[in-house]
Design goal:
mainly alpha, 0% strand
Length: 74
């Protein structure tokens, strides 16, 4: 594995433009995927907040998904 990294480093130092462009493009794709994940999490958070607010408006104050102790004794 180390040998592969050494080869990559040599190609970058020698100015292999196609190689460095491909490496940069790959890094950009990874960054975009990470941002997409964060955007999805943010969207999910907004949906969860909206659902909690909707439940509170209906009068359901128990927004926790865990059952209460008195419900377990039955």
């Amino acid at each position: 594995m180390q040998n592969r990294f050494d080869d990559d480093e040599k190609r970058v130092r020698n100015g292999d433009r196609l190689f460095t462009k491909a490496k940069r493009s790959n890094r950009d794709m990874l960054d975009q995927n990470e941002l997409h994940t964060y955007a999805s999490l943010e969207k999910m958070l907004h949906k969860a907040i909206f659902a909690i607010q909707k439940l509170k408006k209906k009068g359901n104050t128990n927004t926790s998904s865990a059952p209460k102790q008195h419900d377990l004794k039955r």
